[in-house]
From TrEMBL:
<dbReference type="InterPro" id="IPR036514">
    <property type="entry name" value="SGNH_hydro_sf"/>
</dbReference>
<feature type="domain" description="SGNH hydrolase-type esterase">
    <location>
        <begin position="24"/>
        <end position="214"/>
    </location>
</feature>
<dbReference type="InterPro" id="IPR013830">
    <property type="entry name" value="SGNH_hydro"/>
</dbReference>
<dbReference type="InterPro" id="IPR051532">
    <property type="entry name" value="Ester_Hydrolysis_Enzymes"/>
</dbReference>
<dbReference type="Pfam" id="PF13472">
    <property type="entry name" value="Lipase_GDSL_2"/>
</dbReference>
<dbReference type="GO" id="GO:0004622">
    <property type="term" value="F:phosphatidylcholine lysophospholipase activity"/>
</dbReference>
<protein>
    <submittedName>
        <fullName>Lipolytic protein G-D-S-L family</fullName>
    </submittedName>
</protein>
Length: 222
């Protein structure tokens, strides 16, 4: 089974037919914050895989709101080791989605970055290396924000320019390691500002119900 999973995966629809154990780690985008109907894209995927008509993959949602890259790295291996279900078994696949919470500027629009880009590049590289040592990995990128709704929590100024820089750093790190990367930021931005705003919650940061449904579709289609 591991040999099959290690092949290049372009979408979650391409997973092998055998039942797999999958863990999804990251921030509020993994957790599904802002979606009281479907519980987010990971929860939608979990429910889809629970159907008797599907392969029966088991999916654990390990998203924590506000997590930055170094925090996901700190808990990655322990979370992974506890999710094999059966004795001497560990999960077959890790889905990562993190980086948005590293990218805002603090206090004002031209304030310092919460995580400076050079530090982020080191942290995301270490996280990917750490994850790849455990099992195959897929990375789901961040969604764009509504800049007009900033600051978030009266402190965090997210913007598209910095989002682009952080997602490109992540995408390049994934490409170097041949980790499939789903570029959600580019997909959403290509649909236009009105579309993006219509798929975000009132906070301008988290997807709404329709946003998570669109994100679910984007992830499945790769």
């Amino acid at each position: 089974m591991q040999a099959i999973v290690h092949r290049r995966i372009t979408s979650l629809n391409a997973l092998p037919k055998q039942s797999l154990r999958v863990v999804a780690l990251g921030d509020s985008l993994v957790y599904g914050y802002g979606d009281p109907v479907g519980g987010g894209w990971v929860e939608r995927l979990r429910r889809h895989w629970m159907s008797t008509e599907t392969e029966g993959h088991v999916l654990y949602n390990l998203g924590i709101r506000g997590d930055r890259t170094f925090q996901v790295a700190e808990r990655l291996e322990q979370e992974y080791r506890y999710r094999g279900e059966l004795k001497n078994r560990v999960p077959d696949l890790i889905i990562l989605s993190v980086g948005l919470n590293d990218s805002p500027r603090l206090g004002r629009r031209d304030g310092r970055l919460f995580t400076d880009l050079e530090t982020f590049q080191l942290q995301i590289s270490r996280l990917l290396d750490q994850a790849q040592q455990l099992c195959p990995v897929i990375f789901v990128g961040m969604t764009p924000v509504d800049e007009a709704k900033m600051p978030f929590l009266d402190c965090f100024y997210f913007n598209h320019i910095d989002q682009y820089r952080f997602k490109e750093a992540t995408k390049q790190a994934c490409q170097i390691r041949q980790i499939p990367y789903v570029d959600i930021f580019e997909k959403w931005m290509a649909r236009g500002g009105d579309w993006v705003r219509a798929h975000l919650s009132s906070d301008g940061l988290h997807p709404n119900v329709e946003g998570y449904q669109a994100l679910y579709n984007d992830v499945l289609n790769g």
